[in-house]
Design a protein that fits this description.
This protein is about 40% helix and about 15% strand. By secondary structure, the protein is of the alpha/beta class. It has a single domain, classed as Rossmann fold (3-Layer(aba) Sandwich). Helix 1 packs across helix 2, helix 1 packs across helix 3 and helix 2 packs across helix 3.
């Protein structure tokens, strides 16, 4: 019998809601001079699954920690959902971090995998 906590895992919440109402609007991403991007729960579920598949193909396994350094963009949410689906502990790093703070974070997470703006990067 599944644990009641299973219902609180981000990827499971997204999957459940996407199965119920895939076209439900979750948020609108204001994209500067470009048209706003309307994001549905189905969009988040699909993108999270794609990211999970990419991370799995890159060799990540449940329990592998991942540092995520992305802008405030839909891909950030998609990455969190994909990581939750695979059971990857995630530390978000502000994309504006520079200098000694970034150097310290790189040292502190040297054995972690890293997700960047375009693709997952295997750093081991």
């Amino acid at each position: 019998m599944p644990s009641p906590l299973d219902q609180l895992v981000l990827s499971r919440i997204v999957a459940t809601e996407a199965a119920r109402r895939p076209h439900r609007l979750v948020y609108v991403f204001e994209n500067g001079p470009y048209l706003p991007e309307r994001v549905t729960i189905g969009d988040i579920a699909r993108a999270g699954n794609q990211i999970a598949a990419a991370f799995l193909a890159a060799g990540l396994r449940p329990g592998d920690p991942v540092a995520v350094m992305l802008r405030n963009h839909p891909e950030f949410i998609h990455t969190l959902v994909g990581n939750a689906k695979l059971g990857l502990p995630t530390i978000p790093i502000d994309h504006r971090t520079r200098g000694e703070r970034l150097a310290w974070l790189r040292r502190a997470t040297a054995d972690w995998d890293t997700a960047g703006w375009d693709t997952p990067v295997r750093e081991r």
